[in-house]
């Protein structure tokens, strides 16, 4: 493994180990764990923030790739229930891994890339939205899927404000689940 990859792997391990306490991860600790010189973080990544963003992207990529196994688990469910299950799982992950998820979502918004995590999430949801509403044309399915992903990201990023406005505590799993179900009904234009 080359120095750059050793730094990435060490940082990912430290991110997993430190959970939400990202400030506790120092460049010195990363380099010690990777067994590389201190200047190599700046040489390869410019700064610690760029390195963290790259590592977060890799972590989230692994989760998004897991969507395929989730499809297997839900293959016998009706399309709406599949979408509901995936959405609840996504929101739970975002809230349970708040710091990492926030970096991922904000990085995608700040520096959109053709295959970033937001795009990959959109691509995973698209066929489920289409299956829920086979009567919609492709353009409508794309637009509604975009709306769904945007609402989920905003629900996560602005959950305190949203909780206040809607008088619902979105930090609680059962409230998020009810909120997500309502949003699905609203966006998909289906009755409860």
Structure, described:
It comes from Enorma massiliensis. This is HTH tetR-type domain-containing protein. This protein is mainly α. The chain is 76% helix and 0% strand. α6 packs antiparallel against α8, α8 crosses α9 and α9 runs antiparallel to α11. The radius of gyration is 19 Å and the shape is elongated. The termini are far apart.
Alpha carbon gap, first and last residue: 53 Å
SSE order, one letter for each helix or strand: HHHHHHHHHHH
Question: What's the tally of helices?
Answer: 11
Report the mean per-residue pLDDT as an integer.
89
Number of strands: 0
What number of structural domains do the residues give? 2
Model regions low in confidence, pLDDT < 50 over at least 5 residues: none
The largest sheet, given as strand count, sense and whether it forms a barrel, is: none
**Cα shape:** elongated
Pfam families: TetR_N
Protein name: HTH tetR-type domain-containing protein
InterPro entries: Homeodomain-like_sf (IPR009057), HTH-type_Tx_Regulator (IPR050624), HTH_TetR (IPR001647)
GO molecular function: DNA binding
